[in-house]
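hey so u asked for the seq, here:
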Amino acid sequence: MRGNHIRAVVFDWDGTLVDTAEASYRCYVKTFAEFKIPFDRTEFERSYSPDWYHTYACVGLQEEQWPAADARWLDWFSQEMIELVPSAHRALELLDEHGVMKAIVTSGSRDRVQRELVAHAMTSRFDHVVFGTDVAERKPHPAALQLCLNRLGIAAEEAAYVGDSPEDVLMARAGNVRAIAVRGSYPNVRALEAAGPDLLTDDLRTAVEWAITSS
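ran it, structure tokens below
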């Protein structure tokens, strides 16, 4: 994989460019309460995955209730104030300065993530966005990442993926893309470290600098 100049950096959204961990936790508590399911931080740590259906299954929510839970969680989440991670703007500026394309591959739904992109004036900052509702397969399957690279018109060897979950690292590996992990606020840091990314860092800017200079 080495020896190829990075032409595109693809980002995860939740937990990587925006800090959604606490908001996600609060919305799970409120949503599961409506189904008479208790949910606390211990349960959040035990059940968390970017595939929220994994969380639903872990807490015992019946599958026929999942669509209703989706709707309630999204309703609650729309009331949250979501902030960008502190170094997000500078990280994107660095990529612009070096002529590197920027994209997003997220598990989040199109409606929600587009709303958040608009709220942060970020819609024009990316060359392409693939939403979780754009493909049938979920992370760590590489389908969404491969779709993104195809639309950008670049080879896997010319890209890096930046995320905060082990599923992000595994997706990058499956797609033959360099895997950069940034420790975030979600309760999956140990699993993230164990996934063995090419780079593990606490700072998004450091992740982008490494991507720019790696070859």
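The chain has a mean pLDDT of 95. The CA atoms of residues 29 and 185 lie 17 Å apart.
lmk if thats what u needed
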